[in-house]
Automatic annotation (TrEMBL):
PROSITE patterns for this protein: D_2_HYDROXYACID_DH_2, D_2_HYDROXYACID_DH_3
Name of the protein: Hydroxyacid dehydrogenase
GO BP annotation list: L-serine biosynthetic process
Ranges of residues in domain D-isomer specific 2-hydroxyacid dehydrogenase NAD-binding: 118-291
Species, as recorded: Paenibacillus contaminans
Keyword presence, Glycoprotein: no
Protein family (similarity comment): Belongs to the D-isomer specific 2-hydroxyacid dehydrogenase family.
Keyword Repeat in annotation: no
Length: 331
């Protein structure tokens, strides 16, 4: 008997992450049972789809897979989450039944890392401010502030999927890469091409600090007034992770002093209030949470799910596997 694959996400989400070539690939692998009901999938729909299923593909909007739902799928071997965090769908029952869980944080991290790199280059080059100057009739008065991505120090906060990919991209440049991540060993950092250091040293030495940490209680307002004060004058702070990691009131005060430059793709909350002080500061760039998979980039998640399924069937290591013991340190 062939493999049964249950697609649990609602049709609108399916359309976002899968294209025609993806459906053909899935059909070549096995029988595909697709959710055809709009809205958050109801338990009875999940049960119908999962009955007899070997694999389930979830995404945004899928509810928690409770014991009651899992009872109908004794042959279920893996849940492949074609989105980021799995915290909204997993229960201990998954792991207790030997069901493997895998997350699309890797493909999402590609877009995040590429955006962080773009912000790194544009900020070092002073593109944001020089563009504004030229719009106001000036030309190259600020040219002396321009820096290249060459022989500067980049600090990376968090070496998960996005942070690790950012480090890989940075290895194309002659730069020093420092990384702060409590769960990363010095040996792992070295293999990645970075040097592990404590948070204070990373902040004091870096010309650019890029945040890729998860939003967990330990990182809430991690970048407070004291730690922002550790950063070098004229350093650049990039946040493509979560807005809650930065104390925005403290950051606004530091930016008003003119010491730092900030690029924020995330705020807390989103969107920020119309009169939020960060909106009006000339040394703060805010983009509307576009660093992750957006529009055509979302299709990476569909291909990821298919590739992960193939790895599972071939007995190969999974690219995005999430273990139960990792849950406390993941976003």
């Amino acid at each position: 008997m062939g493999v049964k694959i249950a697609i649990l996400a609602e049709p609108d989400i399916q359309q976002r992450i899968f294209e025609d070539s993806h459906w053909r690939q899935l059909a070549d692998i096995g029988e595909v049972a697709r959710n055809d009901q709009p809205g958050v999938p109801r338990p009875e729909i999940l049960k119908r789809l999962l009955e007899g299923a070997d694999y389930a593909i979830t995404s945004w909007g899928c509810p928690t897979l409770t014991r009651d739902i899992l009872e109908v799928a004794p042959e279920l071997k893996a849940v492949i989450h074609a989105a980021g965090t799995v915290k909204g769908i997993v229960t201990p029952d998954l792991w207790s039944r030997g069901i493997r869980v895998t997350s699309g944080n890797g493909p999402l991290g590609i877009g995040v890392a590429e955006t962080a790199l773009g912000m790194t280059i544009a900020s070092l080059k002073e593109m944001w401010r020089l563009s504004q100057d030229t719009r106001n009739g000036k030309w190259d008065e600020g040219r002396g502030r321009v820096r290249e991505l060459y022989r500067v120090t980049i600090g990376v906060i968090g070496a998960g999927k996005a942070g690790a990919h950012y480090i890989r991209l940075l290895r194309n440049f002659e730069v020093t890469i420092l990384v702060y991540d409590p769960v990363l060993t010095a040996e792992q950092a070295e293999v990645m091409g970075a040097v592990k250091r404590g948070l204070e040293e990373v902040l004091r030495r870096s010309d650019v600090v890029s945040i890729h940490a998860p939003s967990i209680p330990e990182t809430h307002k991690m970048f407070n007034r004291e730690r922002l004060g550790w950063m070098k004058d004229d350093a650049i702070l990039i946040n493509t992770a979560r807005g809650s990691i930065v104390d925005e009131e403290a950051l606004a005060d530091v930016l008003r002093e003119g010491r730092l430059f900030a690029c924020l793709d995330v705020t807390d909350p989103e969107p920020p209030a119309a009169d939020h002080p960060l909106r009006g500061l000339p040394n703060c760039i805010i983009t509307p949470h576009l660093a992750g998979a957006v529009n055509n980039g979302v299709k990476r998640l569909g291909q990821f799910a298919i590739d992960e399924l193939r790895r599972m069937l071939a007995g190969e290591p999974l690219a995005g596997e999430v273990k139960e013991e990792q849950m406390s340190t993941l976003a």
